[in-house]
Amino acid sequence: MTSAPAEPAPPPRYMLWTLGAGLAFALAGLVVTPLVGLQVSDIFGVNEGEITWATLFAGVFLTGCLVWWRLMSRPQMFTAWRGAVAGTYVAVFSYPVVIALSEIFQRNWEEGSDPGTFIDRIQHVLLISGLTILTTGFAAIIALSVVGAALGWAEGRQFPDAVERARHAPRHRRGFFRTLLRVTGTVAVVLLIVLAGTFSISSIWPLDTAPLTFDPARSHPAASYEEAIAAFEQVKAREAQLDLHPRCHSTLLTHGQKVKRVVIFYHGLTNCPAQADVLGAQLFDLGYNVLIPRLPGHGMADPLTLALADMTAEQLVETTMESVDIAQGLGDEVVVTGLSAGGVMSAWASQYRADAGNTISVAPFFSPHVIPTWAAHSAASLLLALPNIMVWWNPLEPFPSQTMDYAYPRYATHALGQIMRLGQAIDESAQSTAPKAQGLAMLINDADLAVSNAFANRITEAWRAKGREVEVENLPADRRLPHDIIDPRQEEQDIAFVYPIFIDMISGTEPPPSSP
């Protein structure tokens, strides 16, 4: 009696390998991210749409599982080359997935079902994804393609029968998959070449920083209190021609004469002088004269204005020069400070103005939080080369609070690029030349999810390398302060904690005796 033929063994299941590949890619992402200088929030419960370690891991894991299943497990074709191709796709597609997860789960996700904000949120995801892919994508591709190649080789060794079946598959099936592999492999190689080429070109593309240096011929310091007041009246006359928000005109708080110390404060991007009205009043009560200039393109009555789209780094330099010139007639010691974009302006005064007594850059926006220091030049070049887009800070909450109707809910991508261009000019000078200001300081928010603290540290170290002392105060991350730590109308503000520290930095040294 002939025995029945044995049933063929069921094909192996590759689910564990698919999950393992996703895990390997996710772990590689956690390792590579800090190595390339990308900053990730350690605080999971953020609500500003920022990337956390949790969303980074989840996004890369999900992308890795899906890509590995589609390119490897489903066709049961395991080779190192195919694994490298899979790693390339994981690297590229992880960017929008991670940022989308952050946008959904780390930004008031319970309100995310509002269809009115969907397009704006997608635009935000695509903008950040595109910028980070173009600046750091080539590094991610190299790292994850190596991981993918190793996984593909190992899975092929684990399942040699699958490799043999693929080799002896019907010709038409082999031809289809070989064509698919050639196409996907070619696309992967082209992606790597394009991203590496884009980064290389944008990194060496000149940002024309020469006009952003100090030109003594354009500086006219006020020789007296009267000259300072006359110069400020000219500022008021120019602003009278504009349709400004009533609270957004340049502000001068004066005791009617030159005093020992004058403080200049530059507000942040999309805000206006109202940001520092409470701070200015406290400084005024201490006996200081206070000057709060309006930045170019800011403070318009219509919060949806396009005025910000035309702002340039040259205008920021001009505003800085004019205000420091005016301040010479308002106080024996000139303290120059500012927040975010204003922090970059105060850093410019640190680098170039010897008549600045003390300078304090508060959370300076040299580069976005998501861009590593080495990619900042490339990011600035790309922002200025790409179309100028108006982007919502937060489509779910157009205004940070109901009382901040003077702050713009949108920013222009070229405005970001211009601020970063000014930051690059400061960095270039700081690496070769000692700063001119008499005192140097930075106030850094360790919980800041908007700006690159690493870039601020780079400037600090450059100044110290030139033999200068730099005071650095760090606001602890566990305070979970917002980026805007100055405006008292921010819903998450904590000026009771921040202002005393900031004012102590401003008042830290005794100014010289008042002029007669």
UniProtKB/TrEMBL annotation:
Listed Pfam families: Hydrolase_4 (PF12146)
UniProt cross-references to Gene3D superfamilies, sorted A to Z: alpha/beta hydrolase
InterPro entries documented for this protein: AB_hydrolase_fold, Hydrolase_4
Top-level taxonomic group: Bacteria
Record protein name field: Lysophospholipase
Organism name: Paradevosia tibetensis
Taxonomic lineage from the root: Bacteria, Pseudomonadati, Pseudomonadota, Alphaproteobacteria, Hyphomicrobiales
